Automatic annotation (TrEMBL):
One of its GO terms (molecular function) is GTPase activator activity. It holds the Pfam family RhoGAP. PANTHER family: OLIGOPHRENIN 1, OLIGOPHRENIN-1. Interacts with HOMER1. Interacts with AMPA receptor complexes. Interacts with SH3GL2 (endophilin-A1). Interacts (via C-terminus) with NR1D1. Residues 329-513 form the Rho-GAP domain. PROSITE patterns: PH_DOMAIN (PS50003), RHOGAP (PS50238). The lineage of its organism: Eukaryota, Metazoa, Chordata, Craniata, Vertebrata. This is Oligophrenin-1. The gene is Ophn1. Residues 593-614, 661-679 have a biased composition (Basic and acidic residues). Residues 566-575 have a biased composition (Polar residues). The keyword Transferase does not apply. GO terms for cellular component: actin cytoskeleton; cytoplasm; dendritic spine; terminal bouton.
Length: 718
């Protein structure tokens, strides 16, 4: 299982997302980096799992095997020696008892000396054997329990890691879910626009209209009158809307003819009525260079509409079409009145409506409201506060009006610059550029934009009730307030950046509309690549690596210095606010000198002495477990020197130590502070950490007055 997880982690680490477009949004950057964060998380978990398995061998199995081989094996050797010496002594004693008293005195004395020597050897073997049995019986009480205790500590350290990683993962998960939801909303919005574009492209003729430029070009037939009659000449025409210039290149060059390219300046364009000419798809133009009208014939009805749209063509006066009443509208006084009435109605009776502006009203009701309000006979004579119009109809009518303006509120001219500003990685430049571009809008456009954004800010202030955040409002009003002049797939892919522009306007409304920037002539220049405030992908919050006390036998001062200023999980606590996409937090540098002696431990942190004692215990286990004790001259067993060997040498970077929080795990004994007096209690079912209580020798139980002073000075070996 661990091997499979590690392979999966490697796959996630090497996976690369492919994105369409030249720039990623902040949410797409977070999503692109998410698999690497997942891979690091899985790798860390499996690394800790391998450490736990290694600890099972180093802290539990090997010390128990060493105790069995060295202590119990040594006792068995003592037993064999005792039995051998005993057999030798009793056999010699039997032979000695069968000696005849008639032997010489010297022989009898020599036999007595040999018996005394064997008796001494036998007694010595007996004492060593009995002493060894007593030593094994006594030492196994701690030599067997200590490895199990150390292994359980390692096991719970691994299990505690999952709790700590969960706390690190939750803020990241929430932020990533928000990025995923925003990206899904952008996708839905873009998909709808692309479906409309696909439908329009299927219905529209294949004309050569250059993307991104207000230019149209293609073939047109021109009516030319000759002395012998009328002929139609084919031209390749190019029209530039801003300059109103029409270039006509003849395609049917006759031999000897001196026709060349014509450059004309357009004055007007009017559709030709079908009953006035025997040709279809015709329209008339007037130019400065020629007197009278020029009649042109397009390739189809749809092609004629495109040419007339580019040339701002008009319908014949006598053929007003009532169906075209609301095809296009202008940003005029009636439009401002309509927008203000819609905003007032929404904020009065529907600002807390769930999904406001997202839910769509009936098309029939929307057309009815618009036709009534924009009726040329009595424009604006509609009461939106009455019960005849529901909130969905009003909001849908407002969006329909803004979408059908002849030019969007944020204008075609500034569209490209606004999208480029939203694509910037630098957050300060992004805001500054949009701020400057807002004040480049025409006065009436800027006034309308301020009116709408103020309304959207009011809507977002009730997001708990209506569930509409600035990001959601950006998805709805991005394509409404901004659109490219040409309908292309590339323009559709920029809709997500249009949404970001509107989202920035909502979130920074107060700053942007507090006044123009200092220099409104041009947007601010992007700062160099070393800019401080730049969007960075969100990461899983991880604490700086710190050494585990279970693996170290360092001094109290060093241990205290390493942990100074850290919370129980090594990172700042996570609040209830929405997580921000920041890098991993860095903690303040520990104060030199560590914890002051005699100062009680900080709440939620273990006692440094407990860490030292646990480190010593593990060091003994790692140094070979319980070795045969070396006897001093007085017969007292001398303890071997403790070394601070660690398991950390086997891994490249140690994981921070993990401690339980206040009240988090019931039943786990807490370390006492320096001022607390030791309490003599019977051992609980689950043994507490050995260093957390200083044992009191039995002889002190009769002298309570000495317990408080002696226990603190007592060495850990007692």
């Amino acid at each position: 299982y661990s091997s499979a997880v590690q392979k999966f982690s490697q796959t996630l680490q090497s996976f690369q997302f492919d994105f369409i477009g030249d720039t990623l949004t902040d949410d797409e950057i977070n999503i692109a980096e998410s698999f690497k964060e997942f891979a690091e998380l899985l790798h860390e978990v499996e690394l800790e799992r391998s450490m736990m398995v290694q600890n099972a061998s180093d802290l539990l199995i090997k010390p128990l095997e060493n105790f069995r081989k060295e202590q119990i094996g040594f006792t068995k050797e003592r037993k064999k020696k005792f039995e051998k010496d005993g057999e030798k002594f009793y056999s010699m004693l039997d032979r000695h008892l069968h000696l005849s008293s008639k032997k010489k005195e010297s022989q009898l004395q020599e036999a007595d000396l040999q018996v005394d020597k064997e008796r001494h050897n036998f007694f010595e073997s007996s004492l060593e054997y009995v002493y060894q049995i007593q030593e094994v019986q006594e030492s196994k009480k701690f030599s067997i329990v200590e490895p199990v205790l150390a292994f359980l500590h390692s096991l719970f350290t691994y299990n505690n890691l999952t709790v700590e990683l969960t706390q690190d993962f939750l803020p990241y998960k929430q932020q990533l879910q928000l990025s995923l939801q925003n990206t899904r909303n952008h996708f839905s919005s873009t998909r709808e626009e692309l479906e409309d574009l696909k439908k329009r492209m299927k219905e529209a003729p294949l004309t050569c209209k250059l993307p991104g430029q207000p230019t149209i070009e293609g073939y047109l037939y021109t009516q030319e009158k000759w002395a012998l009659g009328i002929s139609w000449v084919k031209y390749y025409c190019q029209y530039e809307k801003e300059a109103k210039t029409l270039r006509m290149t003849p395609m049917d060059q006759k031999p000897g003819a001196k026709q060349g390219t014509l450059d004309l300046t357009l004055k007007s364009c009017v559709r030709r009525k079908t009953d006035s000419i025997d040709k279809r798809f015709c329209f008339d133009i007037e130019t400065n260079e020629r007197s009278g009208t020029i009649t042109l014939q397009a390739l189809s009805e749809a092609n004629r509409r495109l040419w007339m749209e580019a040339m701002d063509g008009k319908e014949p006066v006598s053929a007003a079409n009532p169906a075209l009443l609301f095809e296009t509208v202008e940003l005029n006084e009636v439009g401002f009145k309509f927008v203000r009435k819609c905003i007032n109605a929404v904020e009065t009776k529907g600002i807390t409506t769930e999904g406001i502006y997202r839910t769509v009203g009936s098309n029939i009701q929307v057309q009815k409201l618009l036709n009534a309000f924009f009726d040329p006979k009595c424009p604006g004579d509609v009461d939106l506060q009455s019960g005849d119009w529901d909130i969905k109809t009003i909001t849908s009518s407002l969006k329909f009006y803004l979408r059908n303006l002849s030019e969007p509120v944020m204008t075609y001219k500034l569209h490209k610059e606004l999208v480029l500003a939203a694509k910037s990685e630098n957050l300060d430049y992004r805001l500054g550029a949009i701020h400057a571009l807002v004040y480049k809008l025409p006065d009436k456009n800027r006034e309308m934009l301020e009116l709408l954004i103020q309304h959207l800010v009011n809507i977002c202030e009730h997001s708990r009730e209506n569930l509409m955040s600035p990001s959601n409002m950006g998805v709805i009003f991005g394509p409404t307030l901004m659109r490219a002049q040409e309908d292309t797939v590339a323009a559709m892919m920029n809709i997500k950046f249009q949404n970001i522009v509107v989202e920035i306007l909502i979130e920074h409304f107060g700053k942007i509309y507090s006044g123009p920037p200092e220099d409104t002539t041009a947007p601010p220049v992007p700062p160099p690549r070393v800019a401080a405030r730049r969007h960075k992908p969100i990461t899983i919050s991880k604490r700086p690596l710190r050494e585990r006390p279970v693996f170290f036998g360092a001094s109290v001062e060093e241990s205290g210095a390493d942990r100074h200023g850290q919370t129980p999980n090594g990172s700042s606590s996570v609040g209830t606010e929405a997580p921000k996409p920041l890098h991993r937090s860095r903690l303040p540098t520990p104060r030199p000198g560590g914890d002051e002696p005699g100062r009680p431990p900080i709440e939620g942190r273990p006692d440094p002495r407990a860490e030292v004692e646990m480190g010593k215990m593990v060091a003994r286990l790692q140094d070979g477990g319980a070795k045969p004790a070396s006897k001093a001259a007085n017969g007292v067993v001398a303890s071997p020197a403790l070394r601070t060997s660690t398991l950390q040498a086997r891994r490249p970077a140690p994981r921070p130590g993990i401690y339980g929080r206040e009240g988090e795990y019931d039943g786990v004994p807490k370390p006492r502070s320096h001022g607390d007096k030791p309490v003599i209690t019977r051992p609980p079912v689950r043994p507490p950490d050995p260093p957390c209580r200083t044992p009191v020798p039995p002889r002190l139980e009769q002298r309570p007055d000495l317990i408080a002073g002696t226990a603190e000075e007592m060495p850990s070996s007692v």
